[in-house]
Recover the amino acids of this structure.
């Protein structure tokens, strides 16, 4: 059995099926990896696009609402008088409404810089509508520096003690003179949560530690009742995120290394789920790259679907190859093996004395040609035997007559 | 009567007893021993080598001792 062509064919087919299954597995793995790369890049691209859209529409909203609000004739005199209570009273109803409807989180009123100071480093706060008890302090930020220097609309991302916020600032004028400034702010956590609602992905905003103040960060986290996460990463700080488990945003690289259009980092397994991680950089209103948004895209469904498809493909291929193997073996048996066995049987019986047993070619193929040749040999063999027998008989007869 | 002829007769007897195909059995024994059993006659000379091969073939195919 082990030496038969049939057995060798079965071995070859089994090896082919095995190699085929390996090839299918390898191919599916490649397709899966390609899809993961594609999805990861797409999730980064769409997150960056969503972020840009939200930034634009939120800026438009803040600018439009501030412009409309500043038409109230009671505003400018209150700013000029640095009337904290009056400004809080006027602003609070609108702030509460906009906070609930649009997620705006900060509304600040700023004193005008002292006369003669063209580009002050800091502005004094008249009122924080979101936190009325805290006011009168000097605040040094890019946004306040720019509005004081440029005296016109300033918008963009700005880093504060609690992280990044999108801000829009306008000068407040009375009788053609600037008497102070107003600022709407939207913390990026609101952005990230909106983006999560749209895509289902998780987002984490990370900034370089050099842009933050260690003590103020600790104080802010304590005030918010959050754990101080300053030491979680070497150079980076996770300031806002949407995930239940912020450790999935751990990263040892730097923001400077992130390409402008973002990059896919890796695929991670966590708590039985598979995520692709990507990141894209963000810049503040001064054009400095100050942070990055990490994107976590859940690949679990894709992975299980691919795994299921791979199993189906392998099973289908093995079944098809098995059916093909059976058909091939059957055809081989009918076209070759049986005819060879018949010739062997005929040869044996001819040698055993059944000289008139003929081999009739079953087909005009290669085995048929051999059957024809074999039949010619048989005829020659039988003729030779008859000739030998005849000569032997003659010799015996001659010997009988002679005796 | 030679030993080879005696062996042939014993083979034919076993074939008849067991109802085997005579041409097939004799053909196999002939191919293995190197002599045509159909042409073995009472006065055919014995070739010890071929006879031994015939005995071995009969032992294996028919389980008999010649």
């Amino acid at each position: 059995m082990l030496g038969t062509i049939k057995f060798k064919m079965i071995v070859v087919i089994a090896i082919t099926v095995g190699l085929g299954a390996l090839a299918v597995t390898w191919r599916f793995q490649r397709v899966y990896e390609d899809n993961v790369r594609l999805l990861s890049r797409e999730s980064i691209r769409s997150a960056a696009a969503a972020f840009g859209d939200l930034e634009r529409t939120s800026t438009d909203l803040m600018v439009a609402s501030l412009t409309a609000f500043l038409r109230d004739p009671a505003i400018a005199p209150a700013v000029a008088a640095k009337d904290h209570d009056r400004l809080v009273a006027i602003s609070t109803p609108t702030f509460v409404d906009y906070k609930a409807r649009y997620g705006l989180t900060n509304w600040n009123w700023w004193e005008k810089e002292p006369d003669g100071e063209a580009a002050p480093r800091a502005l004094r706060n008249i009122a924080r509508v979101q936190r009325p008890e805290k006011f009168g302090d000097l605040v040094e930020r890019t946004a306040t520096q720019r509005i004081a220097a440029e005296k016109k609309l300033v918008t963009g991302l700005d880093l504060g003690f609690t992280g990044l916020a999108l801000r829009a600032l306008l000068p407040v004028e009375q009788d053609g003179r600037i008497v102070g400034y107003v600022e709407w702010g939207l913390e990026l956590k609101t952005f990230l949560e909106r983006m999560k609602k749209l895509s289902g992905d998780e987002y984490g905003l990370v900034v370089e530690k050099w842009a933050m103040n260690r003590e103020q960060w600790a104080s802010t986290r304590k005030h918010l009742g959050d754990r101080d996460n300053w030491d979680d990463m070497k150079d980076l700080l996770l300031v806002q995120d949407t995930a239940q488990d912020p450790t999935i945003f751990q990263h040892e690289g730097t923001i400077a290394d992130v390409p402008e259009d973002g990059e896919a980092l890796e695929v991670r397994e966590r708590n039985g789920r598979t995520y692709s991680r990507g990141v894209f950089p963000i810049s503040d209103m001064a054009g400095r790259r100050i942070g990055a948004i990490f994107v976590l895209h859940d690949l679990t469904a894709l992975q299980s679907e691919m795994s299921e498809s791979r199993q189906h493909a392998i099973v289908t291929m093995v079944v098809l190859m098995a059916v093909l193997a059976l058909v091939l073996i059957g055809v081989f048996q009918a076209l070759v093996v049986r005819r060879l066995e018949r010739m062997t049987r005929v040869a044996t019986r001819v040698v055993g004395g059944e000289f008139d047993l003929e081999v009739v070619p079953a087909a005009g193929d290669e085995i048929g040609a051999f059957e024809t040749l074999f039949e010619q040999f048989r005829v020659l063999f039988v003729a030779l035997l008859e000739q030998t027998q005849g000569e032997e008989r003659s010799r015996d007869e001659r010997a009988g007559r002679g005796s | 009567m030679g030993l080879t002829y005696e062996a042939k007769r014993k083979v034919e007897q076993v074939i008849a007893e067991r109802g085997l195909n005579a041409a097939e059995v004799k053909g196999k024994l002939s191919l293995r021993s190197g002599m045509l059993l159909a042409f073995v006659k009472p006065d055919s000379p014995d070739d010890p080598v071929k006879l031994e091969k015939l005995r071995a073939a009969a032992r294996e195919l028919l389980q008999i001792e010649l």
Remarks:
- The interface with chain B takes residues 345, 347-354, 357, 385, 389 of chain A (CB under 8 Å).
- Residues 62 and 68 of chain A are 10 Å apart (CA to CA).
- The longest helix of chain A spans residues 5-69.
